[in-house]
Amino acid sequence: MLRQLELSCSVSTMFSTIPCFCKRGDIIVADEGVHWGIQNGLQLSRRTIVYFKHNDMDSLRSTLEKIMTKNKRSKNLRRYIVAEAVYQNSGQIAPLDEIVKLKEKYRFRVILDESNSLGVLGRSGRGLSEHHGVPIEKIDVVTAAMGHALATEGGFCTGNARIIDYQRLSSSGYVFSASLPPYLASAAITAIDVIDQNPELLVKMKQNIALLWKGLSDIKGMSLASNHESPIVFLKLEKSSGSTKEDLLLLEKMADRALKEDSLLVVSSKKSFLDKCRLLVGIKLFVSAGHSDTDLIKASESLKRLASELLLSPNLFFLFITSYVFFFNLLSYFIILDDHVA
Amino acid sequence: MITIPYLTAVSTYFSYGLLFAFGQLRDYSRRIFDWWSTNNLHGYAPICLAHEDFYIRRLYHRIQDCFGRPISSAPDAWVDVVERFSNDNNKTLKRTTKSTRCLNLGSYNYLGFGSYDEYCTPLVIDSLKKFSPSTCSSRVDAGTTSVHAELEECVAKYVGKPAAIVTGMGYATNSAIIPVLIGKVCFCCYLSCGDVTPKTYVLQGGLIISDSLNHTSIVNGARGSGATIRVFQHNTPAHLERVLKEQIAEGQPRTHRPWKKIMVVVEGIYSMEGEICQLPEIVSICKKYKAYVYLDEAHSIGAIGKTGRGVCELLGVDTADVDIMMGTFTKSFGSCGGYIAGSKDLIQYLKYQCPAHLYATSISTPSAQQIISAVKVILGEDGSNRGAQKLARIRENSNFFRAELQKMGFEVLGDNDSPVMPIMLYNPAKIPAFSRECLRENVAVVVVGFPATPLLLARARICISASHSREDLIKALQVISKAGDLTGIKYFPAAPKKQEEVKDTIKLD
């Protein structure tokens, strides 16, 4: 029987849940692109953590294979795979059906963060498991933040009765913290009822995502790096300058100009030094069912214009080379003239 | 420090031993039973090893009805407690539609902002209609409204510091901010907007010296930072000085180089002991040894001091001497969230690097409005003197209640003026007995056991509010006295009965 535990802060959900179930010697296999909350939970759990390449199932398979064959003792240890349904840092969607197949083959448990997929993926918005047709019982622990589709604050964690009962005394974010304000809990309940009773909202959102993808598919200087069904549309730079700082400054300039000139609010990636995720930075667009078609078309046009102005401006290096060649030629012409005169 | 009486210690150990033995017996019979049934989790290591959730299954579940009681009204002086029943010996509890009106001694509603307030609530409802419950974004992206900006200025002014940063949850404030301030690795920070000058911050060689009874959020933040952690005896400045001297003399582990940054973390009021921190002595020691002071005022902000400005005001410490002041709004302001106040440079740096600011959803706008309105009421800026009345009332109520409990013979912890009053229970059987007896008489108290307190030091924690009237407190004292007699928790004086009757008549007159 599934039960649920509610916490009062979105980011503390994962970093309270993971340390509960991981003790000395346990092994956790996590995606390298997970967000800071999960990274903090992994660090606080002080266990062996192995990262696999972002959303790469072959890398996951080889990692699991390595762990199970090299370490004979690992058969008696608790083993977890930690992944996000829709990655906040890249907009990719985890292939849950393959993860579940691997988990059953190698006997791992899955902890899934469904913050950005709840109320978005699946026919009735129930998340990644409905989207891939995987029964929810196969996923051991599901956590989610409610500040996304449900438009309230806080987060929750669900699992079977024993897992949740154990967390009532050992999840530090639950035990040592004040509870959520009641009006936010009622807002969450009402949001879930509205999603249940209005499945056309999900259809509209999916249409909006498709429209935005169509509009941005030919953007110059940037490319779409997220999954085509993900509500987070992630635009990454085609040619990175090599320095994260320079890229971030350029993206920030683009976002500022989009706001000033076209009243379009987009967001560039933000990185704290505590965040170990090394994925590419980019511009994130969060699609909503409330956006109209004209809004999205206007947004795509604006971004395409800004990208061509800011990213395709003459390459400074190219300019330097051409000017150098020009002046070199000019200098050599004057030297030859001098020779002639002399 | 709490010293448990000898006989009580023996009986407490005996009780736990008995419970443990019974629990093991039941586990053993369960294992035999389960051996017959099939298990489809073959090949998986069990998610909870037997000894990890032993305490929960065999001890906590028996008295589960004393914890997590749902309420169905605002947490005012009187609250509606929902009745629950269980069909399987307390393993699962089901709610009924009935509720009982009880005197509320469990909520941290120090100034009475936990329920409808004539100034705050209309403003909050307006802001809910204008801004909606959530900003659906982090502060740096699209989650800052005019209310958030006003809130940070208001908090900074109230606390007495140049600037402040507000996060959505008090627990996350400590866990996300301490790793940003101190650690063990060197890094370069990339400023993500505005300023283009790259700055390099060296965080090598950080040392955190923390009070032994600090809250779990501080412990988690300190562990997450990776800095070296040392602990000093609870509220003992002399021991803090000794630890500082030793650590500065030894230097960093292995290399013995001098520490780059030392931070001493203390709390204003310790929530499980009700004691007020000895701040003037600790600040003078930190100044002498050049360590930073981090003060967590979760329970003291808004509750103590002449204008509610916390432990600095109460003890006459200049706020400029405390480097980082942290607090939460859950207790005295009737809202949620936490803040950090400090110098402008510090707050600017936190706004660029703190994960709670960059990644977590921002504090809900109506909650932010509640805090602003509550601060205005406390300072009298709403045009009335309700704030000053509330502060005077909570001081009066706390001192009266504490004095009466001590006269009755209870072992009450905490200092004068502190609204948190833990009454020691010790014995595990007294936890549910006291709680259920009080509930029968319509008084809702909070009892605390392991893991929030050490195993042997279970207690009932009373939180006094400014909205309690004198009659409420007298009724509470009568009920607690009766429950105390039944459960035998009047540990002082040695022969309480005869003196008790005489004292009681004097008190009720």
TrEMBL record, chain A:
Keywords: Acyltransferase, Lipid metabolism, Membrane, Pyridoxal phosphate, Sphingolipid metabolism, Transferase, Transmembrane, Transmembrane helix. One of its GO terms (cellular component) is endoplasmic reticulum. The chain crosses the membrane at residues 316-336. Pathway: Sphingolipid metabolism; Lipid metabolism; sphingolipid metabolism. Coiled coil: none annotated. GO terms for biological process: ceramide biosynthetic process; sphingosine biosynthetic process. Signal peptide: none annotated. Residues 9-246 form the Aminotransferase class I/classII large domain. Its cofactor is pyridoxal 5'-phosphate. Its EC number is 2.3.1.50. It holds the Pfam family Aminotran_1_2. Belongs to the class-II pyridoxal-phosphate-dependent aminotransferase family. Gene3D superfamilies: Aspartate Aminotransferase, domain 1 (3.90.1150.10), Type I PLP-dependent aspartate aminotransferase-like (Major domain) (3.40.640.10). InterPro entries: Aminotransferase_I/II_large, AON_synthase_class-II, PyrdxlP-dep_Trfase, PyrdxlP-dep_Trfase_major, PyrdxlP-dep_Trfase_small. This is serine C-palmitoyltransferase. GO terms for molecular function: pyridoxal phosphate binding; serine C-palmitoyltransferase activity.
UniProtKB/TrEMBL annotation, chain B:
It holds the Pfam family Aminotran_1_2. InterPro entries: Aminotrans_II_pyridoxalP_BS, Aminotransferase_I/II_large, AON_synthase_class-II, PyrdxlP-dep_Trfase, PyrdxlP-dep_Trfase_major, PyrdxlP-dep_Trfase_small. It is an enzyme of class 2 (transferase). It comes from the Eukaryota. The keyword Ribosomal protein does not apply. Residues 101-480 form the Aminotransferase class I/classII large domain. Its main location: endoplasmic reticulum. Pathway: Lipid metabolism; sphingolipid metabolism; Sphingolipid metabolism. Its EC number is 2.3.1.50. It catalyses: L-serine + hexadecanoyl-CoA + H(+) = 3-oxosphinganine + CO2 + CoA. Transmembrane segments: none annotated. It is a single-pass membrane protein. Belongs to the class-II pyridoxal-phosphate-dependent aminotransferase family. This is serine C-palmitoyltransferase. It comes from Brassica carinata. The lineage of its organism: Eukaryota, Viridiplantae, Streptophyta, Embryophyta, Tracheophyta.
